[in-house]
Amino acid sequence: MSSPFPAVHSVLAAPALADLLRQEYALPAGLQVTLLRRNISDTYLVTLPDGERAILRVYRSGWRTRADVAWELALTRHVAARGVGAAQVLPRQNGELWGAVQAAEGERFYALFEYAAGRPLQTTPEDAALYGNLAAQFHASATDFAAGERFNLDLDHLITQPMQFLRPLMLDFPEQWATLEAAAQRTHATLSKLAPRLSWGVCHGDLHELNVRVAPDGLRLIDFDCGGMGYYAYDLAVYWWSQVTHSDKPPAESQAIWEAFLGAYQAARPLSQADHAALPHFVLARSLWFMGLMAGRAPEFGTETLGQPFFDFGANFVGEWMQKEVAD
């Protein structure tokens, strides 16, 4: 029998995953597994015969190392044990928090999480304040966390590496590339000067509004996959970036929502002057990181996904933000 043709990213069959879950987690027969979305990792809804639900994440091959996955899941448990609302990882029968399967493209890790019930976070000052307070709780709860190896959310990770992914895809877009390159150089230089005075610790890495649920008993954080040791100001700036790039609200309303988030955070964990000064620069870093993230996925998503509209939007935002928020 010939070997399977090499794949970049396969979709694992839901019935086979259901069999895997029954074996590894002692779940009952009759459970249903449904693919919710394909993204950096694949997310599945697991529905048990009694109506209980869980979330299965299957990591992309080569996206995270074993140490990375172990760090992420240990952090999830750590902060929950200290009272932070977080969707808990559910252990396999052998007590391990994750497992691995061999897919066509190579080894893929998986983990099962409790279902975070509740409504999505709304883009209102009230919900933003709730989220800001939760972000402060999260940072405080993780100050004593230490478990294995993990990448850092440093300037190399946020700016240098993403630009390397973007460069070969932007040969036909010299004007947009020039804007991004200038922003990257300026942002890196500014943050490098501020770095010795910036607060550093365990970060979630992806604190936008889609990674939290609002339930009657409080908020639940989800998806710690982009977390690592990093700058707290960057962690907070992710939410600002999300408001100014993904919201359909007028700029004044988006600014009020960001200020409600930041104000609630600072009521619990005041920021230093340097952290404040870094926030708008980290919005630029986040924008560059996101574009680089997508560029790095071009072999799976396709280069047409990253055509001129994508680069135009990114370069226009970066150029306008530099003029408006970080002008000399």
Automatic annotation (TrEMBL):
Keywords attached to this Swiss-Prot or TrEMBL record, sorted alphabetically, are: Kinase, Transferase
Q: Mind telling me which Gene3D superfamilies this protein's record contains?
A: 3.90.1200.10, Phosphorylase Kinase, domain 1 (3.30.200.20)
| Signal peptide coordinates | none
Chain segments annotated as coiled-coil in the UniProt record: none
Repeat as a keyword?
A: no
Please name the SUPFAM superfamilies in this protein's record: Protein kinase-like (PK-like) (SSF56112)
Tell me which residues make up the Aminoglycoside phosphotransferase domain: 39-271
Molecular function terms in GO for this entry?
A: kinase activity
Per the record, the similarity remark reads: Belongs to the pseudomonas-type ThrB family.
Q: What is this protein called?
A: Homoserine kinase
Organism the protein comes from: Deinococcus xinjiangensis
